[in-house]
Amino acid sequence: MLSDLSSVSTSAFTLAAIQEEGEKEGSLSLLDALISTLIEPVPFGVDGEMEKDDKFQESVVRILYTSTISCNGAFSAVQKRSLVGFLGGITMTQGEELLNFGLTIEEWEELSEAVRS
């Protein structure tokens, strides 16, 4: 069992859970909620004095990358429209740690292509 990694793969279940809409009519999927928090970050800190949490945004971008590229997921048309403005407003240059959200240039390009396609 340990030599066959596919026997313990949970990516299909995880992807399904992320994309599944809530039980209440009109409720968003977890993926929709993550995209929303990325595009419109909620102020945080003791008094809400900080506009966005860079580490949280990095984690969300990594989840988006993993779910679409590594797990062969796809964004809906609505999700793509939401993300295209966000990703398009960011210039990816090598060495700018805050702008790449922890992704390599290749990973960033793959994610951007998944949003544009």
Describe it.
- The chain has one domain.
- The radius of gyration is 16 Å and the shape is globular.
- The N terminus is likely disordered.
- The protein has 117 residues and is mainly α.
- The protein contains five helices and no strands.
Spell out the blueprint of helices and strands:
Elements: H1 11-19, H2 30-39, H3 54-70, H4 77-88, H5 105-116
Helix pairs in contact: 2-3, 2-4, 3-5, 4-5
Q: Which tags fit this structure?
A:
single chain, 117 residues, mainly alpha, 5 helices, disordered N terminus
Q: Give the overall average pLDDT.
A: 78
If you compute it from the alpha carbons, what radius of gyration comes out, rounded to the nearest whole angstrom? 16 Å
Whole-Å distance between the termini? 37 Å
**Main sheet?**
none
Return the domain count.
Answer: 1
Quickly count the helices.
5
Which structural class fits the helix and strand makeup?
Answer: mainly alpha
The SSE string, one letter per element, is HHHHH
Portion of residues within helices: 40-55%
Put the structure in a nutshell.
With 117 residues, the chain is an all-alpha fold.
